[in-house]
Amino acid sequence: MADIVIETERLILRKIDEGDARLQYDVLNTPTVMHYLGGVKELHEIEAKHAKNMAWFAQFGFGFMMMIEKETGELVGHCGMKLVDNSNASNQGDHEIGWLVREDRWRHGYADEAMRAVIDWAFETIGAPHLVALTCEANIPSWKFMEKLGMVRRRDLDFSDPSFDDDHNPTIQYSLTKQDWQRA
């Protein structure tokens, strides 16, 4: 498999390529999975995100990756790191991690396995000084998972995003410093 970035016990995390937009659209783009991410996307929206992601890898050496289950070869999600680029955020340019797992693979430990590997990669290989993760306050499973990863709530970085409705605002952030990661 080309462009493997990280390999874990059960997962291959590989760069996103041109043909992955349709795969993501078919497998991950469901109302339940996309509920806290602005809802189901059109194929052209996913294609645009993928193009931006491929540009990040070319420019910075990091981005989001497809999570492939080794046992089946199936897409189980995507995860990785980008720079905070929301114009409403006061910390634009920080290293932001994120993940998305297809619904039939929830509670199988894939997000945990992938994100611990992404955090290690971010600090050891990329040299990020600290990481942030963004979600909305209503997405309790997401921010509880951030806490499980050792991240700490940063209320000073909360912001309102007018592209989301009131139920999905404010956007909240959690942070993990390299020092706290090293102590864990």
Automatic annotation (TrEMBL):
Q: Where is the N-acetyltransferase domain?
A: 11-179
Give the protein's recorded name: GNAT family N-acetyltransferase
Question: Please, which domain of life does this record's source organism belong to?
Answer: Bacteria
Database matches in PROSITE patterns:
GNAT
Q: Which Pfam families match?
A: Acetyltransf_3
Query: What InterPro entries does the database record attribute to this sequence?
Result: Acyl_CoA_acyltransferase, GNAT_dom, N-acetyltransferase
